[in-house]
Amino acid sequence: MAIEERDVDPVTGRRDDGTMINEVVVQTGIGPERSAIVPNTGEMSLNLGPQHPSTHGVLRVLLELDGEVVKKAIPDLGYLHRGIEKLGEYRQYNQFVPWTDRTDYVAAFTGNLAFVKAVEELMGIEVPERGQYLRIIFSELQRLASHLLWLGTHVMDLGAISVFLYSMRERELILDLLEMQTGARLTLNAQRVGGFPKDIPVGFREKLEEFLAIMPGRIKEYDTLLAENPIFLRRVKGVGVISADDAIQWGVTGPSLRGSGVAYDVRKAHPYCFYDRMDFEVPVGTHGDVYDRFLVRMEEMRQSVKIIRQAVDQLPDGPVKTQDIRVALPSKEETMTSIEAMQRHFILVIHGFRAPVGEYYSAVESPKGELGWYIVSNGENHAYRARNRAPSFVNLQALPVMSEGGMIADVVANIGSIDIVVGEVDR
């Protein structure tokens, strides 16, 4: 497509073909009428996505640009819609746990925990202390794994490759630990209503100790590579700013909220699983830009290592799942030697358990923010209504606030700094 230049009358501002100076004649090369007049305003619409690169899933962002300046950013969802909440209304409570893996699929354990915790609190079920401490350990391992994936992909979106290789090195060590416990590395299906299906295996604690010994030094490596890197700083400092008031108004939670200076963390505000026994800090930013969100997650990784260390030191002996016969499967030995235990096993597996009539909302602090499940029970063996408060979905609302007025290249940095997983957005 070629643009044809025309002489301009200095008095009228018109070219010799009658068009104004802010218009161009475009040669279309089609048919006898080969020219078309279009305004030269510098404004255009551009689709970012829905292909995967830089959008962290099938997300489409419709951008209205003036040159390279973003005038409007509209996230467009629905390319990965799964209907997971509706599926939760047709599956027994424990049968639904694997579906919670597939919302934020890089933080499957916290997805499991949020759902089973809501059911447990609705039913008044107490999980033994060992099970609660193990939930802390696996939640923080999952937080580390999620933040490491965020770090590698976020920096790669901005043009750097090396950090991705560094962060994947440590993430593989965490996935090795998760595989020892669950047999899986991504979608874990690690929880049941009432606790863990089994205790940690032989050798797990020793391998965890090895990881805890090396991880602080590896986080320092990431910091050395990035925290004062002038190219990285130019891409993130002063970019994607969102004030504390705006973040609160849009319902933002997690590191994206704490980066704006609001010290809200579910683990502190509404402690669960004995987090009130853990000594850790909630890092916050000061400017609410991409750099502050980076710094908050980096410090959260250090705090997660600290929390795991305390939980391992305090880990008591004992069972890892409740003995409440309403939900607890009998042991294999009991099932094979007792007719009553075999019948209970059969009923729980085939028919499941029934929750009392009522409704309940329960939340955990996932790597992305407040992850909650609202469950309405009508006394059946599955939820009558199940609603997921997904932090990626809510936090994505703030993307236009962060992006409008900035450059088109900054949109990519902003998406990465929110750390969305579209499985959780289009749940």
Question: Could you explain the architecture of this structure?
Answer:
It is built from 17 helices and nine strands. The strands form three sheets. A three-stranded antiparallel sheet has the order 1-2-3, with no helix packed on it. The protein is α+β, with helices and mostly antiparallel strands and 427 residues long. Residues 1-6 and 19-38 have low confidence and may be disordered. The protein is globular and about 80 Å long.
Short account of what is shown:
By secondary structure, the protein is of the alpha+beta class. The protein has helices at 84-87, 97-100, 108-123, 129-157, 162-182, 204-226, 230-236, 244-249, 255-258, 266-269, 290-314, 332-337, 339-350, 391-396, 399-403, 408-418, 422-425; strands spanning 2-4, 23-27, 35-39, 43-48, 60-66, 69-76, 358-366, 369-377, 385-389.
